[in-house]
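Hi R.,

Here's the chain you asked about this morning:
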Amino acid sequence: MARMRFKNQVPPRGWKYIVQESRLTIEGESMEDLAARVVQHRIYKKLPRATLDEAKLDIERQICTRLTARECISEGTDDEWKPIDDNPNITMSAVIGASKAALEFVASGAELVPEAERARRAEICLGCAANSFIRGCRCSIFYKMIDRMVPAIRRDPGLGVCGVCACSLQAKTNLPANVIVAGDKGRNLEYPSFCWIPKLKE
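And here is the predicted structure, written out as tokens:
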């Protein structure tokens, strides 16, 4: 994994940590504040890694899954950490380009992946720091349009937009592998090592 270079600076998207076991998102005012909240939750839930040092390390590693090499540094040569693209801005053209394959497939009414596979993918995305909600820009309307095209029974309210590929996760978790591979082709995306998407391309 990776460690933060500047632990006293507020990282992009703030001090936020997703507890993998409970799927709870915890926010804090600083590293110290966030770590204390994480420890409190872990103790309450009888979860492992409930010391301040362990919580701080886990927070750094998770936050770095959504940051660039400017903000984080690899922990070693065997580290599977992959920094995100140096330009995190999601533009309207990028949104449309990334979502074109998904939009066309969902609109066609073609068969989606089995529910068990969708649920498996969603579970991984729900625990990923790159899962976020886009608000306050024109592209949010476009995302809502795509999400509404997915059958309600196959949506998860906890899924937003992937911070790596700029795709609607409501749609992407439902798509067959060939559609996802075609949509990502030529984009040089670096997903986290635990992500389910790179395995589709192997």
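One quick note: The first strand starts at residue 2 and ends at 4.

Cheers,
M.
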